[in-house]
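Mods, move this if it's the wrong board.
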Amino acid sequence: MYMRRSLIFGFILALSIAVIGCAPRATGGQAAELAGTEKAVVDIPALVIEYNADGTPSMGGIPLVMMAPILGLDPAVIEQLVLPAEQIDILTNANIQHVQVDNATDGILLLVNGEPIPSLVWDDTTLANLAELLTATGISTAALEQVLPLVRTAGVGLIAKFPVDAGNEPIPTVKLGEGTADAMAQAAQEDYLSAVGDAVPQIHLGVDYNDDGSWNVGGMSTNEWAGTVEGVPWASLNLSEVLLSDIQDAEITTAFVGTNVDGISLKINDKDMPYISWKHGELTHVVRLAQQLGLLNLGENQDAMIGLIEQWLPAVQAADVKINVDFP
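Not the wrong board. Structure tokens:
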């Protein structure tokens, strides 16, 4: 009887902590909309893990290490979530208040301070193609054709929150509308495309790999390209014997990488794979975050340089880049 009560109490306590330590997800409700057509649908708020200045994580005000026995977790797993105090200081000084990972119906959405950074986008077709590729390469032997589609109906997320200096205003976990990197990038993109029309930068390359792992582009070999621009590590693009053998074993004959205003796309054997999105101001936001973290050395007039980079980004994102790769 005592054991039964303990189990019930532990379950109620764990459930209470989980409910308290939750917040709305950026794409909450999307998975629930599939409930009428899908067999297994999960759509729940994001779990919130809060870090203190020492880097200790907690949920609902209770340190995670104390919750490990209740949740049946190995304390060593919880210890992996502890961050060095020095990293917390860096994040706090840069006003990085939270990071969110949101499993949406169309991909993995990553947000920092409520705004997205480049994230992975997929649909049923690209997930099926990815499952086929992972099986062919031997990375996974599981029945991924049945498992991966379920990823689209698993509406779950995690938000990691960090200490906020007293002088900084709290930032919402999802920022929308005026003043966001998305709004500013969309306006800049429209202005750029309106100005250049169809005259966007275009880079189209064909890369042919040889049996020894070297390559040819435009009729020039690896060694010939090495003599064109000094300092460029052209040989680093060569494939090792092991990697080339793995590619051939997986019967991969072609690959394609392309960019446009939506993001970076990838094809393997002419089959679309999940792609990286940057159409919602993700690159603009990354530049701003890099500046906050002190990762950009732009001289004395940093604001002017950031403005110049943000003006340059629409041209980069709109560029029509196509790289076709053929393997022996």
